[in-house]
Amino acid sequence: MTRSDLVVLLAERFGQLAQRDTEFAVKTILDAMSDSLSRGHRIEIRGFGSFQVNRRPPRMGRNPRSGEQVLIPEKLVPHFKPGKALREGVDADNSAGHSANKELLAAQQIKG
Asked: Which residues contact 69 (CB under 8 A, 6 or more apart)?
């Protein structure tokens, strides 16, 4: 799902909101999240997951063309950890898909 898909979905679900207002709301939320993470804060959305900034320490890498070693500096990277409800929901959807695929394969093997 892209940002524009989210805007369209929310505009359809909440008919009282204009597309422009929905787009502004999504932009405001995402900007607030980005700003919070850039200041080093942690974001937790119950039932969905949490976002935080992780530190990647400096390390030695290798230039693939020349083979020489290169120092890769420390960097801060955003990290998402899904919540329990999200993990279980995705797993349940995945399990249902696998069982449907198994049934389809079994039916095809019986026919052919």
From this structure: 60, 61, 62, 63
